[in-house]
Amino acid sequence: MPVAQRLRVRYAKRGRLRFTSHRDISRAVERAVRRADVPVAFSAGFSPHPRISYVGAAAPTGVASEAEYLEISVTRRCDPELLRAALDTSLPPGLDVLAVVEATEGSLADRLECSAWEIRLPKADSALAVAAVEGFNAAERVDVERLTKKGLRRFDAREAVLSLEVVEGTETTAGQASSQPCVILRMVVRHATPAVRPDDVLTGLRLVAGFAPPVPPEVTRLAQGPLDVGTGEPADPFGLDREVTRGGETEPVGGHVGGDL
Amino acid sequence: MPVESLFPRLEALLPKVQKPIQYVGGELNSTVKSWDETTVRWALMYPDAYEVGLPNQGVQILYEILNEMPETLAERTYAVWPDLEALMRAEGVPQFTVDAHRPVRAFDVFGISFSTELGYTNMLTALDLAGIPLEAADRGEDDPIVLAGGHAAFNPEPIADFLDAAVLGDGEQVAIAITEVIREWKAEGSPGGRDELLMRLAESGGVYVPKFYDVDYHADGRIQRVAPNRSGVPWRVHKHTVMDLDEWPYPKKPLVPLAETVHERFSVEIFRGCTRGCRFCQAGMITRPVRERSITTIGDMVDAGVRASGFNEVGLLSLSSADHSEIGEVAKGLADRYEGTNTSLSLPSTRVDAFNIDLANEFSRNGRRSGLTFAPEGGSERMRKVINKMVTEEDLIRTVSTAYSQGWRQVKLYFMCGLPTEEDVDVLGIADLARKVIKAGREASGSRDVRCTVSIGGFVPKPHTPFQWAAQASHEVVDHRLKALKDALRGDKEYGRAIGLRYHDGKPSIVEGLLSRGDRRVGKVIRAVWEDGGRFDGWSEHFSYQRWMDAAAKADLDVDWYTTREREENEVLPWDHLDAGLDREWLWQDWRDAVNDVEVEDCRWTPCYDCGVCPTMGTEIQIGPTGKKLLPLTVV
């Protein structure tokens, strides 16, 4: 059956569900789509697959996210809000559907230019963290190594980091349940190849200033989107779709950052 | 007493392990009940990795049935991989359930389902991590009752020292009965401690408590007798049989994991038991008689299960699924219902029968057309008579020709190596069969693009089968025959490249044989292997034959005596006091018939041949046809 509509979905992986891998999520979404009776389109051919595509680089296994994106093609037009509610109900708690919009012109992938990340470092020393961040920010380039599927790769982790700072506070994010005082890093990273991930920045902090967190860090992707040069933050990538479908009405950009939906 | 979740402590370890999602729980349709509002609590374990254990039907059925009972709670636990085990030991995190991450030691019952003996070392890891003494004799009032079930529990003697109790057969009703015995005993204030509780369970006649039985041995090592050591304990413990599967339509709400598992489908058991009489097959002997689930219940279960899970594949399980009296109607009805929905149907365990091609065509209407699998099991006509697998070469060639002519391109054939009376020529017969299959396939399809995969498993004699007296073939013999077969296929220019051969070496089968027909003296070998680091023996990358042989040598235990030795008719076997309903004289006669190439028919379609199960167990064959059909599903 022909595709009647394409919908764009923003979802979160929170709490213990942050341990899902990308493949785990894709199976869970396929099943949720079936349980929710979403009229998903299937690819043609010998082994038909539901037409669900994941946009942008997935948050790594173990990393929580408030801003993952997928696109789904359906054979019957659906109300975006009804689809959001149905899909959210069918997914296990912790995989939460935050927003659905009808796709308009242009590629969503092209709009995901950068990510905002939060790294919580329980039991870490605040003064050391501040010094390490200063050292990192002052460096021209910080070469790190990471084992990828293609083997050990060496690349610069500094240039893609648009901002990196130590922020105050011990509040917990929606996704994580930790109330102890901890150092919180916040950063905006431009999407590049190879991707610079939060753990690469942590590796950089260790190389630059010998800073190493005492316990595993808790990492959350807060937002993804086009870089707003005014604020230095990712803007809402659905902004354009909403503008078109709602006839010019726009969403406040800052409202989605921080994952408080 | 409140029991706290171990999750916060576990969570700190998860970033450091492979596939952490398998430990976090939260599966769709899983249940977390209040600890304080329940009185009887079960921890259910499948003693293998989560990816293997989660789909297990037995555990899912008991989990659902127990959680449906008021004041009863059941949670699941699986074997943790060595990476997490090391971290748990370092940080003092005990064995946990994945549902509410409660410590296993806090439960009343720790029930372990053994599909295979190769999970024994994983049980010891779980007990040790849980803080429960490995040996039943060392356990105290605060420890759970460690209870084994599953097919391997039909001879629990090798793990008798580690178990408080074992149950044989279908678990649905006996799990409820055990729960009620425990509830009553706790309500009375747990009089007499765990000893009295075990005594109450033993007196019921349906629960085996190893420590209430003494085993005496002859000087030559054979068992002299097994006898109860206190009054009130029955001489023999009987298996349990659920008599109306339509009254037990479980699982109703299948668990849907986030982690990837070995079976990603909704499975419905369409019947239980099998009387085809294959002599090597323990499952076919210990699950008699055949009890069918009706076509309408199957349809209802598939409908509800697919809705509740979102799975896109449905498996119709049983020991020989095409034997259901209404399988044609079931296949057609389900294929009609799910036409155009990208829901595929699968039918494991099919016999060599042209009728099955029609079924396979029906089943592949809505989905993939992958390969077809048949199990002739024996490579020669004579071998198939010995094992009572009544398939002629003609049947096989006709069946595969039909398959290839109808567009199937790949056929998989299962065989066994090391069967009783087997000689080299029987195994080389597999190569001949495979060549004929390809030749017929090329003729039938008019194409050279047809393939056949031959999969070979090592035969292990099992308790409660006619082959329980047989000598197991040594691994040298098995390896020699497999090599000869490989050479024969490799040297074949005309057909060799169209035939794939898959097999394992013969060594793991020897360890499986030791554990299958072992007695209580094998327990110390299991413990020594575990202490030496033995884990996950069902996984070739973890299994070490040498470790088992070293442990046996150190314990002065002769592995050959347990495996490659043929037993006499009157030898007391370690499981003789455990009753699967099979008449011992009939089993012996069937063993003699096997050696003389005499076949026996299926009692569903021919007169009863007195295997003994129905009169002993008070059961009867339950088969259709009901004459009913599946109606189209109405859209709500």
Automatic annotation (TrEMBL), chain A:
Residue stretches making up the DUF2344 domain: 6-198
Pfam family, one: DUF2344
Record region (Disordered): 226-261
Compositional bias (Basic and acidic residues): 239-249
Matching InterPro entries: DUF2344
Protein name: Radical SAM protein
Species this chain originates from: Streptosporangium carneum
Lineage of the species this protein comes from: Bacteria, Bacillati, Actinomycetota, Actinomycetes, Streptosporangiales
UniProtKB/TrEMBL annotation, chain B:
Entries under SMART domains matching the protein: Elp3
PROSITE patterns: RADICAL_SAM
Alphabetical list of SUPFAM superfamilies matching this protein: Radical SAM enzymes
Domain Radical SAM core: 260-502
NCBIfam families reported for this sequence: rSAM_fuse_unch
Protein name stated in the entry: B12-binding domain-containing radical SAM protein
Gene Ontology molecular function terms on file: catalytic activity; iron-sulfur cluster binding
Organism field: Streptosporangium carneum
InterPro entries per UniProt: CHP03960_rSAM, Elp3/MiaA/NifB-like_rSAM, Radical_SAM_N2, rSAM, rSAM_sf
